[in-house]
C-alpha cells in the first residue's frame, strides 16, 4: 500500500533515484514510465481522484529531480 504524500516517502525516492542513476536514455524513460504506471494504479486503487494522483506524481517528480541534482553536485564536489 502506498502511503501519502509520496514526496515524503524517502525509501521510495532513494530507490527511484538509485535506479535512475543506473540507467540512461531510453532505458531511463522506460523505467520511469513503468514505475509511475504502477504507482498510479496503486493510487487509483486506494481511491484518489485523477487530480490528486496528478499532484502526487508531479510532487514526486520534483523531489526526485531535486535529489538527482543534489547527488550530482555532491559527486562533482567529491563528497558523495
Structure report:
The protein is mostly helical. It has one domain (6-73). It has 3 helices and no strands. It has helices at 10-22, 25-45, 50-77. Helix 1 (10-22) packs antiparallel against helix 2 (25-45) and helix 1 crosses helix 3.
List the helices and strands and how they pair.
Elements: H1 10-22, H2 25-45, H3 50-77
Helix pairs in contact: 1-2, 1-3
Concise synopsis of the structure shown:
This protein has 80 residues and is mainly alpha-helical. The protein has three helices and no strands.
Helix fraction?
over 70%
Largest sheet: none
Strand-pairing-aware structural class: mainly alpha
End-to-end gap: 32 Å
**Domain module count:** 1
Share of β-strand residues? under 5%
Helices and strands, in order, run as HHH
Low-confidence stretches: none
Q: Tally of extended strands?
A: 0
What is the alpha-carbon Rg in Å? 14 Å
Amino acid at each position: 500500500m502506498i502511503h501519502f504524500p509520496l514526496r515524503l516517502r524517502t525509501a521510495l525516492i532513494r530507490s527511484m533515484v538509485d535506479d535512475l542513476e543506473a540507467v540512461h536514455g531510453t532505458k531511463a524513460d522506460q523505467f520511469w514510465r513503468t514505475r509511475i504506471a504502477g504507482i498510479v494504479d496503486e493510487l487509483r486503487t486506494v481511491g484518489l481522484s485523477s487530480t490528486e494522483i496528478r499532484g502526487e506524481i508531479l510532487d514526486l517528480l520534483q523531489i526526485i529531480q531535486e535529489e538527482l541534482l543534489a547527488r550530482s553536485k555532491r559527486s562533482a564536489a567529491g563528497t558523495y
